[in-house]
Amino acid sequence: MSYLGKMRGSAAGSPPRVSNAEVLWSWVGGLLGIGAVGLLNDLLFRGTDFVLLIAPFGASAVLLFGAVRSPLAQPRNLIGGHLIAALVGVIAYQLLPGVPWLAAALAAATTIALMHLTRTLHPPGGATALTAVIGSDQIHQLGYWFVLVPVGLGALILLGVALLVNNLAANRRYPETWL
Question: pTM for the complete prediction?
Fold first, then answer.
């Protein structure tokens, strides 16, 4: 197949629609997962330099509650991917604070490579790395704390909610594997 021919894709079509029950469980999980992180942010960190609710957690919620069986949604990937990404993002920002486009590119590319090497591929991790680089002054002031709070703590909260919610439905099981 030619190089340009590959860009046509295949004729496989869209994935099949999931059941209404699956849609409801995904919605409940997303509501409770993001709600828990947001509520704890409000209760614990209001008026501080810490922030708990970051955008990459929205993408993690899609995987944890909408693609429960995906290898990308498993605990190893969720926790490992976010922690690696946060650490890489902080380092990239500290190495290149005056060149944000290069720090962002370096953070995203290095995060992808390290997640592959450690078998912790979690796509929202790319957004976590970018958040460490292009985030607000509040994010930058956290320095390495960014790895623990919001990233580590927030990912653990999402994992806890995923364990509780995803195992309530008879046709769901989470996780598929821990390691």
Answer: 0.95
